[in-house]
Design brief:
This protein is 65% helix and 0% strand. With 124 residues, it is mostly helical. It has a single domain (13-50, 58-122), classed as DksA, coiled-coil domain (Four Helix Bundle (Hemerythrin (Met), subunit A), Up-down Bundle), CATH 1.20.120.910.
Length: 124
C-alpha cells in the first residue's frame, strides 16, 4: 500500500515572507508612481491657472484626464497589494478563490495580488 502524497494547501511561513517582500517592493513603487501622477496633476492645474482662463485648453484637459486615469489605476493596484498583505497575514495568500488550490509561484511573482490561478482566470 502506497502512502498518498498530501497536496499542499498553503504556502509556508517562509514562502509567505518571501511574497511579502515582493509585495512591499511593488507597493513602494506604486505609491511612488501615484505621488508622481498627483504632482503632475498639481503642476498641470497650476499652469492652467497661470494661463488666461478665457482660453479652452484641450491638450491640458486630455493630459489631465490621462494622468487622472493613471493615478486611479495606481490607487487600485495599491488597494490590491494591501489586500494581498492581509491575505499573507491571515495565511490564505496564494490560494485560488475559485478552485481552492495553490496559485503557482511564478504567477504570484509576476502578479503578487492575484487571487485566481491561470486556469480559473482562463475559464472565467
Amino acid at each position: 500500500m502506497m502512502a498518498k502524497v498530501k497536496e499542499k494547501t498553503r504556502y509556508s511561513d517562509q514562502e509567505l515572507e518571501e511574497f511579502s517582500k515582493i509585495i512591499d517592493a511593488k507597493l513602494a513603487k506604486a505609491q511612488e508612481q501615484l505621488a508622481f501622477y498627483r504632482n503632475q496633476l498639481r503642476d498641470l492645474a497650476d499652469s492652467a491657472d497661470a494661463k488666461s482662463k478665457g482660453l479652452d485648453d484641450g491638450v491640458g484637459s486630455a493630459e489631465s484626464e490621462r494622468l487622472t486615469n493613471m493615478a486611479s489605476r495606481q490607487q487600485n493596484l495599491i488597494k490590491h497589494l494591501e489586500n494581498a498583505k492581509i491575505r499573507i497575514k491571515n495565511k490564505v495568500y496564494g490560494i485560488c478563490r475559485k478552485s481552492g488550490k495553490l496559485i503557482s509561484k511564478e504567477r504570484l511573482k509576476a502578479v503578487p495580488h492575484a487571487t485566481l490561478s491561470i486556469e480559473a482566470k482562463q475559464n472565467r
